[in-house]
Design goal:
The chain has about 100 residues and is mainly alpha-helical. Helices cover about 55% and strands about 10% of the residues. Strand 1 and strand 2 form a beta hairpin. The mean pLDDT is about 95.
Length: about 100
């Protein structure tokens, strides 16, 4: 059995996104990309953090594992967790 609510993948993706956004700030956005260990040579890339987070949510819905509400709640939770982690643990760059 897989818990439908909230979407844990969305929580994780949004947490990573919020921390990356805190690190990047208003600077230029680097291209995000990931590869698959199960699909060698396949690379997914994004130029916006929000696009990455939304793709994770849409994939969970298309896969039939979650409903839209669960992904939206998961994204909100992840953003809050990421913002809290960034506020508590990231130090301003002093270079």
């Amino acid at each position: 059995m897989h818990p439908e609510y909230p979407c844990a993948h969305c929580i994780t993706a949004a947490t990573v996104g919020a921390i990356l956004q805190a690190e990047i700030g208003t600077g230029p956005m680097p291209k995000l990309s990931t590869t698959s260990g199960t699909a060698p040579g396949k690379v997914r890339s994004w130029t916006q953090i929000g696009d990455f987070v939304q793709e994770v949510a849409n994939a969970r819905i298309c896969d039939g594992v979650h409903y839209r509400n669960s992904t939206e709640v998961g994204i909100t939770m992840g953003q809050q967790i990421g913002e809290l982690a960034a506020a508590k643990y990231l130090r301003p760059n002093t270079l």
